[in-house]
Amino acid sequence: EADIYQTPRYLVIGTGKKITLECSQTMGHDKMYWYQQDPGMELHLIHYSYGVNSTEKGDLSSESTVSRIRTEHFPLTLESARPSHTSQYLCASSEDFVTDTQYFGPGTRLTVL
Amino acid sequence: GQSLEQPSEVTAVEGAIVQINCTYQTSGFYGLSWYQQHDGGAPTFLSYNALDGLEETGRFSSFLSRSDSYGYLLLQELQMKDSASYFCAVNNDYKLSFGAGTTVTVRA
Q1: Is the model's pLDDT at B53 over the cut of 70?
Q2: Smallest Cα–Cα separation from B74: which of B104, B51, B43, B44?
Q3: By the CB < 8 Å criterion, does A102 face chain B?
Q4: Is it the case that residue B1 has pLDDT exceeding 80?
Q5: CB of A97 within 8 Å of any CB in chain B?
Q6: Which chain A positions have a beta carbon within 8 Å of B35's beta carbon?
Q7: Higher-confidence residue: A59 or B51?
Q8: Got the DSSP string for B42-96?
Q9: In this structure, are residues A105 and A23 in contact, taking their beta carbons and an 8 Å threshold?
Q10: Which of A44, A64, B70, B104 has the lowest CB atom count within 10 Å?
């Protein structure tokens, strides 16, 4: 069973605020991902990492940044939140470079007013 | 880039069989995965096919035809708890690209 955690689970903030969504995993997985998902819609890859000090941009990365200083930690930062950022943010990790089987955290549901 | 197509929704009764098709276009391909997501929950891994053929895991089976760029997920002996969204995902360039998902509704 995967152990991957996200905090906060729910967040309501005002426009223009800087926020950091936390993601941690205890499985020692090298690969980690951030996805954005609107209700009933597909997952869009925001950022991913192959390991410590590795970060790559996905499809929706232009308004956010990530860091990977430790294997277990992969925070996502929005420098200036906007109502268009209202969505669910899912973090995932993977140890298998062949199948890329991903284990997802419970998600952070963000609302920007 | 990649594109995946799957039906938006399927409704069936308990005990029935449902097949969710997925066609894909991608510049590189390592395999096709399937994930289940219950409403309000996180996606969970169901199956992975790298080679042509059928993979069976309990009530769920997944099929791949690389030459046709096509796969499907077969849900057998449907139960109410199978009501969820099912996503196919292409493993391409060491990351996944997901389809839009198929919402399966199981009726009593």
Answers
A1: yes
A2: B104
A3: yes
A4: no
A5: yes
A6: 102
A7: B51
A8: --EEEEEE-SSEEEEETTEEEEEETTTTEEEEEE-S--GGG-EEEEEEEEETTEE
A9: yes
A10: B70
